[in-house]
Amino acid sequence: MRTLKKPQERREELIFCARELLEKNGIQSTSVSSIVKKVGVAQGLFYYYFSSKRDIIDAVVNQILDEIDTHAHKIICDTNRSFYTKLLDFVDLYFLIIDRFQPSLITDLYVPVNNKLREEIFSGARLINEKYGALLIDEGIRDHVISLKYPYEMLFMTMHGLTAILHDRFVSKELLLTLLEQSLCLPAGSITQ
Q: What are the Cα distances from residue 94, in Å, to 89, 91, 128, 129?
């Protein structure tokens, strides 16, 4: 017997299953047929909600970026955390997200056919980082932790530099924290220890 679900509920179920498969198997090994098989629906129903595999991947990416935005907002707006704790928690959020994915998914992003997708992901993440990074810089200035002449420009340069580094290789947490300390002129070990 077929289970009838509301359209939005069915769409969310397809996204949820696609995300699970993408996180586990990567982009190349996740097909529309594997998604509908996991959900237990006909392939035609998939195309009622999504025009293509890329369309559902975009929905998954948007969902992940929305989650990152929500978590970043909670971190930055938490008045019980210090500047240093917020900065460290913000970095931890990045590694928490990356750790959820299998290496195959990260590798798949660098297959030439996925260049546009990779750029969209990096661009979306960079916008979130810049938005909440600016709020964190505001707090650092207000609390006299940051005393740079051009703090927002340094933040912009740091974010773009980190993105460029990430294009070439995976960055360790220790390296990322050290680069943040140095670029923001924070005391050595203030967030790395």
A: 9, 5, 11, 10
